[in-house]
């Protein structure tokens, strides 16, 4: 007899540290291990059902939108939209009602309104849909005063080589799941629903390891680094870092998506010891170069026998971390996905990181970190930001409500 789909709450308060870092994306084992459900299958004494990953659902309704503190699924597609001419607050409200209804259905494993392929909705695979509002939306709806405090357009940094193809946008749809088909179907439904209101400006797809990864393991990025270790966890301030308490945005957050290209050809020619110094952590296990294990606190004062800092002055983690730069120097929640789009017209590998960061306040949390990294970061020799877009992510909604109601309702 098939097991009922397992529904997880996406409330961060119910996430263990292990779940948060656990990147469920670890196939059947990972998805089940974190979900606490497993137990359903294993307690019955047999193998987990073959379609357990496909049938897993994550609750859509709640105080916060899912897909932010929800452990990162294996696949993500980010879609940026431009509003059509003449779309006003009432029209955006209509779109958000439709999108909310469709997202609530799809994430629960049900077909959307006028679903072109209802069978594809049956395996949501931990699907989450997260909506965001770009700076231009506030102008379009005639509500400049509703721009959240500190939600300023991201400046172009000296390291940036931004391409309009990956930059800006009035609306964001972020779709994540442990299965590409579930993601593609949800994106298709939401893009079609948006057509009378908005057109797609860009679409970016990313991935994480999704099979054979130990539950709780931090994933690696395309440079081979263990990436995600020092993210805030529920027991060390996750809620304060991420969730806003400001006006209509209360229970929501802000998000920046940076498309950061990696020059892997030159990176691959760098000696492993130099690669480790560029980050400040070991390649083998992600432990700080100052010693200990992956999750141990780095010691930024330690020097080697030549008197040189073991975690160099320009190491990425030293420049990025609040610990090294003092209280108030910025904390964010990172949710990075690798991208690999083959080769470009010049034959160069077109790959890198879709760097997504969430923070209650954009100007005082994200910007100071990015400014420091733009000024000095050893990683800059092999990475180039080529896209950048910021969004306010409204709070979640309860059944009967809709995303964005606090602003548009
Ligand atoms: C391709 C670009 C990037 C790569 C490959 C990368 C890689 C890494 C790695 C391997 C770590 C150490 C492990 C960890 O704690 O996750 C790390 C830490 C971190 N990164 Fe990045 N990163 C990139 C871009 C950025 C950007 C654009 C920002 C923010 C503007 C950022 C902010 C941070 C922060 C805040 C930490 C944690 C520092 C700490 O508290 O120890 N990173 N990154």
Q: Which key features would you list for this structure?
A:
disordered N terminus; 4-stranded antiparallel β-sheet; alpha+beta; binds protoporphyrin IX containing FE; 26% helix; 409 residues
- Helical stretch tally: 14
Shape: globular
Measured on Cα atoms, how large is the radius of gyration? 21 Å
Number of domains: 1
Which hetero compounds are present in the coordinates? protoporphyrin IX containing FE
- State the helical fraction: 25-40%
| Series of H and E elements | EHHHHEEHEHEHEHEHHHHEEEHEH
Counting DSSP E segments of at least 2 residues, the number of strands comes to 11
- By secondary-structure content and strand pairing, the structural class works out as alpha+beta
Describe the largest sheet.
Answer: 5 strands, antiparallel
- Strand percentage lies at 15-25%
Give the rounded overall mean pLDDT.
Answer: 90
- In angstroms, what separates the terminal alpha carbons? 44 Å
> Low-confidence segments, ≥5 residues, pLDDT <50?
1-6, 11-43
Organism: Amycolatopsis cynarae
Pfam family, one: Dyp_perox_C
Family: Belongs to the DyP-type peroxidase family.
Keywords: Heme, Iron, Membrane, Metal-binding, Oxidoreductase, Peroxidase, Signal, Transmembrane, Transmembrane helix
């Amino acid at each position: 007899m098939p097991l009922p789909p397992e529904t997880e709450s996406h409330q961060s308060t119910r996430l263990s540290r292990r779940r948060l870092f656990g990147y469920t994306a670890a196939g059947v084992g990972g998805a089940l291990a974190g979900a606490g459900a497993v137990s359903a299958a294993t307690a019955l004494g047999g193998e987990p059902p073959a379609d357990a990953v496909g049938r897993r659902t994550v609750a859509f309704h709640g105080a916060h939108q899912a897909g932010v503190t929800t452990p990162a699924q294996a696949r993500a597609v980010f879609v940026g939209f431009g509003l059509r001419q003449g779309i006003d607050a009432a029209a955006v409200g209509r779109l958000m009602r439709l999108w909310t209804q469709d997202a609530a259905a799809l994430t629960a494993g049900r077909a959307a309104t006028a679903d072109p392929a209802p069978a594809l909705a049956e395996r949501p695979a931990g699907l989450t849909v997260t909506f965001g509002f770009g700076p231009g939306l506030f102008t379009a709806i005639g509500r400049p005063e509703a721009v959240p405090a500190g939600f300023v357009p991201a400046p172009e940094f000296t390291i940036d080589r931004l391409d309009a193809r990956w930059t800006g946008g009035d609306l964001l749809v972020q779709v994540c799941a442990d299965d590409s088909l579930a993601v593609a179907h949800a994106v298709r439904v939401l893009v079609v629903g948006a057509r009378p209101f908005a057109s797609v400006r860009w679409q970016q797809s990313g991935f994480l390891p999704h099979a054979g990864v130990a539950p709780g393991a931090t994933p690696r990025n395309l440079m081979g680094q263990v990436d995600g270790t020092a993210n805030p966890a529920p027991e060390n301030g996750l809620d304060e870092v991420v969730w806003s308490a400001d006006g209509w945005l209360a229970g929501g957050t802000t998000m920046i998506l940076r498309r950061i290209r990696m020059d892997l050809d030159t990176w691959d020619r760098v000696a492993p010891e130099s690669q480790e110094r560029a980050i400040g952590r070991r390649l083998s296990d992600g432990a700080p170069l100052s010693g200990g294990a992956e999750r141990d606190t780095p010691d930024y004062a330690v020097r080697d026998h030549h008197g040189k800092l073991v975690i160099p002055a320009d190491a990425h983690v030293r420049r990025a971390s609040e610990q090294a730069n003092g209280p108030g120097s910025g904390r964010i929640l990172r949710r990075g996905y690798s991208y690999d789009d083959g080769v470009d017209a010049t034959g160069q590998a077109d790959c890198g990181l879709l760097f997504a960061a969430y923070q209650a306040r954009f100007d005082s949390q994200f910007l100071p970190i990015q400014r420091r990294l733009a000024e000095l970061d050893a990683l800059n020799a092999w990475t180039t930001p080529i896209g950048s877009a910021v969004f306010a992510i409204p709070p979640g909604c309860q059944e009967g409500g809709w995303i964005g109601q606090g602003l548009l309702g």
